[in-house]
Amino acid sequence: MTATDQRTDRLKKALRDAGIRITRQRAALLDVLADAEDHPDAVELHRRAVARMPGISLSTVYRTLTALEEQGVIHRHQFEGDAARFEHAETEHHDHMIDVESGEVIEFCSDRIEHLQKQIAAELGYEIVHHRMELYVRKKAGEG
């Protein structure tokens, strides 16, 4: 079974657990979501799903995404000045850089940043229970 098949199964189970019937349209949307390696918004997910199964409504996409988020199998990211974007919840912790010109979302991990955040919180008498880092970036002139 491929990683995409496993994701699809996990998404289907989450909807069933939420009491939501898996229609052909929802199944197509779940396949699209399972395939997504980027951070698509609802409109983009709708566009991709309609290409596979015409007739899917945007409201079905939104309701399905809300249910999946409530079940904890996808994460919603609300990047500054942009529509909410979605990604799989099973990914390891990572932070995001958002290119302010192209809208591209770049994932990154930095042990140095993680350590520094913990150190700063401890120095102030706290422990981190959850965090999210978003860096808004622009390519340097002359770089690629």
Any overview of this molecule?
44% of the residues lie in helices and 15% in strands. 17% of the residues are buried. The strands form 2 sheets. It has a 3-stranded mixed sheet with strand order 4-3-5, with no helix packed on it. Helix 2 (24-35) packs across helix 3. It is globular, with a radius of gyration of 18 Å. The model has no long low-confidence stretch (mean pLDDT 87). The chain folds into 2 domains: 3-88, Arc Repressor Mutant, subunit A; 95-137, Dna Ligase, domain 1 (2-Layer Sandwich), CATH 3.30.1490. The chain is an alpha+beta fold. The chain is built from 5 helices and 5 strands, in the order H-H-H-H-E-E-E-E-H-E. The N and C termini lie far apart (38 Å). The chain has helices at 3-17, 24-35, 42-52, 58-70, 111-123, and strands spanning 74-77, 85-88, 95-99, 105-108, 134-137. A hairpin with a 5-residue loop joins strand 3 and strand 4.
The biggest sheet, with number of strands, parallel, antiparallel or mixed sense and barrel status, is: 3 strands, mixed
Tell the overall outline.
globular
CATH class designation of the largest domain: Mainly Alpha
Total count of helical runs of at least 4 residues: 5
Query: Can you list the strand order of the major beta sheet?
Result: 4-3-5
> What is the number of strand segments?
5
Summed over residues and divided by their number, the pLDDT gives a mean of 87
Q: Helix and strand succession?
A: HHHHEEEEHE
Binding site for Fe cation: 93, 95, 114, 131
GO molecular function: DNA-binding transcription factor activity; transcription cis-regulatory region binding; zinc ion binding
Keywords: Cytoplasm, DNA-binding, Iron, Metal-binding, Repressor, Transcription, Transcription regulation, Zinc
Organism: Salipiger mucosus DSM 16094
